[in-house]
Specification:
The protein has six domains: 1-101 and 308-350, Phosphorylase Kinase, domain 1 (2-Layer Sandwich); 102-307, Transferase(Phosphotransferase) domain 1 (Transferase(Phosphotransferase), domain 1), CATH 1.10.510.10; 354-414, no CATH class; 419-489, Immunoglobulin-like (Sandwich), CATH 2.60.40; 504-567, no CATH class; 571-634, Sandwich (Immunoglobulin-like). Helix content is 19%, strand content 35%. Strands 1, 2, 3, 4, 5, 6 and 12 form a seven-stranded antiparallel beta sheet that branches. Strands 23-22-25-26-28 form a five-stranded antiparallel beta sheet, with no helix packed on it. The protein has a four-stranded antiparallel beta sheet with strand order 16-15-18-19. Strand 9 and strand 10 form a beta hairpin. The longest helix is centred in the N-terminal third of the chain and has 20 residues, at 118-137. The protein starts with a helix and ends with a strand.
């Protein structure tokens, strides 16, 4: 009991009998105790005021302590610690009673000599992804996702801990713009202005998984300023040597997305990110892969396993173990607590949740559950009766749906485009208007029907004067009078940037998405109407769409602050029919997935090589597609 004496701790805290010290930190201490009523060991977290210098600091510490209890009371998931008790003892102050669990914090594992297999690493990542997605669905943003706040139990299960600075969507936390969290794992928006939502947690989780898989930080540095600068301005480092068992191209693609500087460019959820990373793995057997995917299918109402979790304060260090046996597993007991109020009791007794696949037509709509963004359709999301769904997509009317007990949510939510009457005007007036390559009757100023759910190309001409612009979904002319200039400069009407080094962009104008490589670097997928930032100067672009059998190379020069339109060819429907036999249809040596039995496939207009391979022979044919076409020939 020497450690307890040094801390002036009593032999009992409330009804709990203190056994020994487990750990200490700047904000508190954790001791092992036993609940005499049910003979269960617990870990008790106590506040420490001996190092608090001001009343403001004391108030903040107490606020975090209370917040940890309140936020944890909202959560019920096997990847997040369970809840026992909260109280206050005269002379000691508030305490949190937590589960006691043998295990090690993840940061200790990463810094130690323990070698985890690829499957063990993925099992940790999967458990944390499910836990974070559950918290986000409940309106809770952790804000300090890092290895030090993760416990790995003896059976390899990962548990998320320490919600002391978590943010609830319905409660203020600190002053606006205040940075909370750990710098190495903070998101760019967290660093710049302190604003966070679930996408900030997704970024921090991406940093954690990058380090877990590779043993390296994606944004290394010898000073905090260097680390923060790289997080805000630079892409993640290239891992050398590449991570064994993962395809380097896949690794770059996945982490460039989850660690994107703009929150909207990241994966819609933590599980979506882990699934994407799992697709890049080449050294996992079928059974291991099936097991990991099964773990990602766990609902928030799954039975809590025997090995439960604990909490670890963000500044806490682990105390010296009293057991000196050399091969004994290091035990660390840490946990979280929330008040066992009637509201919490009712929550536990509430309706069971159901994991639903939320789809929309068209896809890509942002999904909100109880006003919290959870991803873009299609997205797999746990729901309970009383949850309110809202789907939003640029250019389309938002859809709201209240889930009621006994009802089944629609298999797919149809989204209706916003159609408005827009005034198209020009200076000078009386100009001719062409919208999406179709001439509009009349002259400016005139009104046109504008489907905001589609991208549009607007061209206005009068003699040698002209103006041209691309509008993405949700963008409208807005009644502006467009200035007509010499036709030679009609495409460059934008004002030059004041900063010659200001980034420019390319904007996709077409009917389908393409994958983009710029100067050999994979930049992900670009949707119609979307913009891709690029540095000023010449670039070599590679555009491709496997689905629509499209591939092209383009040389472009980006001007500072300017947006360059990339116009793609239209789509054509190709129908293939052979007789007397049929075979598989290939376009440009790629399997289309259809048979030559009169089935059709949509491909990009242009020149293509069509091949039909059947048991009775092979037939090749080159076609120039300028519109829908039917091929019919003997095989």
């Amino acid at each position: 009991m020497g450690d307890l004496d040094n801390l002036n701790l009593p032999s009992a805290i409330g009804r709990y009998q203190v056994i020994r010290l487990l750990g200490t930190g700047a904000m508190g201490s954790v001791v092992l105790a036993e609940d005499p009523r049910i003979k269960r060991k617990v870990a008790i977290k106590l506040m420490r005021f001996d190092y608090v210098r001001t009343e403001a600091d004391k108030h903040e510490y107490l606020a975090r302590f209370q917040r940890e209890a309140e936020v944890s009371g909202l959560l019920n998931h096997p990847g997040i610690v369970a809840i026992y008790d909260v109280g206050e003892v005269e002379g000691l102050g508030p305490f949190l009673a937590m589960e006691f669990v043998p295990g090690r914090p993840l940061d200790g594992i990463l810094k130690g000599d323990s070698l985890l297999s690829l499957k063990e690493k993925f099992r940790i990542a999967v458990g944390l992804a499910e836990a974070l997605d559950h918290a986000h669905a409940k309106g809770v943003v952790h804000r300090d996702v890092k290895p030090g706040n993760v416990m790995v139990a003896e059976d390899g299960r990962a548990k998320l801990m320490d919600f002391g600075i978590a943010k609830r969507e319905d409660a203020s936390l600190t002053q606006t713009g205040t940075f909370l969290g750990t710098p190495s794992y903070a998101s760019p928006e967290q660093i710049k202005d302190g604003s966070v939502d679930n996408r900030s947690d997704i970024f921090s989780f991406g940093v954690l998984v990058f380090e877990l898989m590779s043993g390296q930080s994606p944004f290394p540095g010898t000073s905090i300023n260097t680390i923060l600068y790289r997080i805000v301005n630079e892409p993640p480092i290239e891992v050398q040597p590449p991570v064994v068992g993962l395809l380097p191209e896949g690794w770059r693609r996945v982490f460039d997305r989850v660690l994107a500087k703009q929150p909207a460019d990241r994966h819609p959820s933590c599980t979506a990110f882990v699934r994407d990373l799992l697709d890049a793995v080449v050294e996992l057997g079928k059974e291991d892969r099936r097991e990991l995917l099964g773990l990602m299918g766990m609902s928030r109402d799954a039975t809590i396993p025997e090995i439960t979790s604990t909490s670890f304060d963000e500044t806490m260090v682990v105390g010296r173990s009293e057991d000196k046996k050399p091969n004994r597993t290091w035990l660390v007991a840490l946990g979280l607590v929330a008040a066992l109020s009637m509201g919490w009791w009712l929550f536990l007794r509430g309706p069971k949740g159901t994991r639903l696949q939320i789809k929309s037509q068209p896809s890509g709509a942002e999904v909100f559950v109880n006003d919290l963004p959870v991803g873009r359709t299609p997205v797999n999301q746990p729901l309970v009766p009383g949850d309110r769904l809202r789907l939003e997509l640029k250019g389309y009317r938002p859809v709201a749906y209240d889930l009621k007990a006994g009802e089944t949510a629609p298999a797919e939510f149809p989204l209706l485009p916003i159609v408005t009457e827009e005034l198209v005007n020009s200076t000078p007036a009386e100009a001719t208007v062409v919208l999406d390559e179709k001439a509009i009757e009349g002259q400016t100023p005139l009104k046109v029907q504008w489907n905001q759910g589609q991208p549009h190309r607007l061209t206005i001409t009068k003699g040698r004067l002209g103006f041209a612009a691309d509008f993405g979904p949700g963008e409208t002319p807005g009644g502006r009078a467009f200035e007509l200039k010499e036709a030679a400069t009609a495409e460059t009407l934008q004002e030059p940037a004041l900063d010659p080094k200001a980034p420019g962009a390319v904007k996709l104008s077409g009917g389908f998405s393409v994958k983009v490589k710029a100067d050999g670097k994979d930049l992900g997928e670009l949707s119609p109407g979307a913009k891709l930032p690029l540095d000023p100067g010449p670039h070599q672009l590679e555009l491709s769409s496997v689905r629509h059998h499209y591939r092209d190379r383009r040389s472009v020069t980006i001007a500072a602050g300017q947006t360059l339109a990339l116009t793609l060819p239209g789509l054509a429907t190709l129908t293939v029919e052979t007789f007397p036999g049929t075979g598989k249809v290939f376009v440009d040596d790629q399997d289309t997935g259809i048979e030559s039995d009169g089935s059709s496939v949509q491909i990009a207009q242009g020149r293509h090589s069509i091949t039909v391979r059947g048991p009775k022979g092979i037939k090749h044919q080159t076609v120039d597609l300028t519109g829908d076409k039917t091929l019919k020939f003997p095989l």
